[in-house]
């Protein structure tokens, strides 16, 4: 039995599936968003400020240098017209027959755009923003209008994304742990599982089947029942073919 057949069978026997995704799932076409840690990723290419990317994406930098922060943020993290790809759609389609929860580190909103209905965006979303003074909520168009977006009260509008130096939402983390604890199948896609506390969530999984799809090695490869160090779309397309053949029998 080949690995794609095993992947298909794991889906078939699962009732509750958790899919954990990182930047890698949004790299393939037609999405084409750059990831963070690969050779040509956001952290590797440098920037016009000659400042480490982690520093630019910190809450301290946002507070002290909002104009520079928003210039970098708009140019590198906001892709309002990005299209979801076949991997996003594959996991959305699984909801037709399975209970599926997406736990994503991504802020691009593409799982929701693809049709997934239960998405935990543990690092936030570029489509949600709020005034740091009065708390009023704003959508993405307000972020795009001016150098430093400001509320009608005069406060700065901050994207609802988790910056370095900020903690993740405790309620979202609690929900993620609970979903993982009761899942039959965990599928990790496009993340090196090095960013904490998100990476630590994997330890809450107690189910039978654990699948990793990531081009590079992860610290959890030895724990997984199946590991694919291959192109994400190649894996997804091969599994879809197996599922299609099985449905015609």
CATH topology of the domain at 1-33 and 84-123 and 168-249, anyone?
Rossmann fold
Sheet having the most strands: 6 strands, parallel
Q: Which CATH first-tier class of the domain at 1-33 and 84-123 and 168-249 would you pick?
A: Alpha Beta
How many beta-strand runs? 9
> Which structural class should the secondary elements be placed in?
alpha/beta
The oligomeric state of the chains shown is single chain
Instruction: Output mean pLDDT.
Output: 92
List the helices and strands and how they pair.
Layout (H helix, E strand, L loop, with lengths): L2 H11 L2 E6 L31 H4 L2 H6 L1 H11 L9 H8 L5 E6 L5 H5 L4 E3 L2 E8 L5 E2 L1 H4 L13 E5 L8 H13 L2 E5 L19 E5 L12 E3 L3 H17 L1
Structure description:
The chain has 249 residues and is an alpha/beta fold. It has a domain at 1-33 and 84-123 and 168-249: TPP-binding domain (Rossmann fold, 3-Layer(aba) Sandwich), CATH 3.40.50. Helices cover 32% and strands 17% of the residues. The protein contains 9 helices and 9 strands. It has helices spanning 3-13, 53-56, 59-64, 66-76, 86-93, 110-114, 140-143, 170-182, 232-248, and strands at 16-21, 99-104, 119-121, 124-131, 137-138, 157-161, 185-189, 209-213, 226-228. The strands form 2 sheets. It has a 6-stranded parallel beta sheet, with helices on both faces. A 3-stranded antiparallel beta sheet has the order 5-4-6. Strand 4 and strand 5 form a beta hairpin. It starts with a helix and ends with a helix. The mean pLDDT is 92.
